[in-house]
Design goal:
The complex is a heterodimer. Chain A is α/β, with parallel strands linked by helices. Chain A has seven helices and eight strands. The longest helix of chain A is centred in the middle third of the chain and has 18 residues. The chains are: A alpha/beta, B alpha/beta. Chains A and B meet through β1, α1, β2, α2 and α3 of A and α1 and α6 of B.
Amino acid sequence: MMMPARLQLVGDLERRDHFHLPEHAQCYFWGEYTPYEHTQGKKWNFSPTNQLIANFKKKMDRRGFPDWQYKIQAIQRVARQFASSWKWAEMHAQNRVALIPVPPSKSREDPLFDPRMTEMLARLTTLVDLPLDIRDCLSFSGRHAASHEAAARPTPDELYEDLTFDLRYGDRAPGAMLVFDDMLTTGAHYVAVTRKLSEQFPGVPVIGQFVARRIVPDPFADFEIEDAL
Amino acid sequence: MNSLPAFLENKPINARVELGAYEYLWKQPSSSTKRLAELFQSNPGSLPSDLVDEDLAQQAADEVVEYFSSCGIRRFGVRINGARDYPSRLRDAVDPVEMLYFLGSWELAESPRRVAVVGTRKVSDAGAARTRKLVRALVDFDFTIVSGLAQGVDTIAHTTAIECGGRTIAVIGTPISEVYPKENMELQRCLASKYLVVSQVPVLRYKAQRPHVNRFFFPERNKTMSALTEATIIVEAGETSGTLTQARAALDQGRKLFILESNFRNPAITWPAKFEKLGAIRVREVEDVLREFACSSNSTQ
C-alpha cells in the first residue's frame, strides 16, 4: 500500500497561526503556503503548494494570455485532490451536504471577480459524478480588497457586515456544510462566513476545507505579526 | 457532533499527534533510524499515530512543544510522510525518515539547484578559500547552498552564501532546539529566522541520552542532507571524515557527487579516487558543476 495523499487538520499547533479561528472550528487543509513577501523581500515561491496557490489565484486579467492555462490546471488539480479526499457518494447520500465557496472580496459586477472556487466545485462535481449541492450563496461588496494585498486586514465583524446571502439558496437547510476557500490566513473570512451561514441555517454543522494554510516562517516572531501577514 | 470527518477517504494528519507518536517511537530504547525505517516499511501507508497509542503520543507532543517553547521557539514546522509538502525525494534514502522538523522558510527546500557544500570541521586555509570561492560562484548562478552548520567548511559555506545575498539551508544533526557547535548560536538563529533549518533528530530521545551516543545523529543527518539536495560537493575531507557518509549516500540515492580537484592531489587520502571510480565528478573549476546542471530548469510558471 502506497502512502495516500492526506488532508491535514488545523489542530493546536496550527491554530496559533490563524488567531481568529475559534478552538471548536473543524478545518482541514491540503498544503502549507509560505509567504515570501516578508522574507527579506526575496521572491521565494518555489514549493508545489506556493506554485499551486499562485496559479489558482492568478488574476482574471490574465485570461487569454498563455499563462492562463496554469490557472485552469490548478483548478483541475485542486478539484482532483478534493474529489479523492472525501467519500462523496456516501456523504451525499447520508448528509445532504452543501458545498459553499467563500466568495472573493471583489463584487460580482467587478470584471476582476474571480469565480475560481465555484469553478473548482463544478469540476469536482463532474469528477465524482454526483449532483452535489453547490451553493454559491455569499457575496462581498468589494469594499475590502483581497486581504493579502491590504495594509490593514478587515476584522471578522467587518467582513460579516459586508457579506450578503442570496436568499434563492436559503430554502432547504442542508444536513451539513463544507465551506471551501483557497487560503486560511487569519481565519477572519471563515469566521464571518460561518456566522452568516449559521443565521440562515442554524444548528447545521460546518467544516472548513482549504487548499492551503498560510504559515509564518519566523520561529521567533511575535504573534502580533500574524496580523500583518 | 459533526459527523462529516467520518467521510474522509483517509485519516487526516494531525501534526501535533504525529510528532508525538514519532517522538514516542524514538523514545523506545531499541529505536534507530534504520529500525524505524524498517518499522514503516513493514507497515506501509501508516502514519506514526497508527503505531502508537494516542494518549502516549499526546503526552510526548506536549513535552516537545513545551520544551521548544522554553527554548524560545514560538513556531516550528513539521513535514510528515503523507502530507502534501513532505518532500518525496526523502524516499530515495536507504532508511528514509518519516518526519522532519524545520524552522524558517520551507520554500528554500524546494528552491532550484539545491547543492550541498560540505567538508571537514578542521579546514585548511586553502580549503576555506576554496569554499568561499565555490559558494560565491554558485550563488551567482542561483544555486541554494545546503550544509550542516558544523565548524569549518559548513560554517564558511553558510556565511558566504548569506554575505553574497544567496539562499542557504542548514540540515543539522541536533534537534532544532539545540545548537552545535555553540559558537554558531547566532548563525543558527539567523538561518532559522531568515533562511531554513531542518532536522530529523527527535528531541526527547536526544535529551535523554548522552552526547557520545547523540553523535550518531550526525551521519544520519548527512544522508538526509543528500536526499534533500540534487548534488553534494566535497570541498575537503580526511580519510575518516563523516563527510564521506554523505558521499556514499549521494551515490546510493542517485545524486551527483562532486569532489574538488585539490583532494585528488592530496597523497594522504585515497577516498577521492575510490569515489571517482563509483561515479563522482572531479571539479577543477565551477563550470564542471554548472555543466551537470545545464539541463535543470526552474519550474516557476
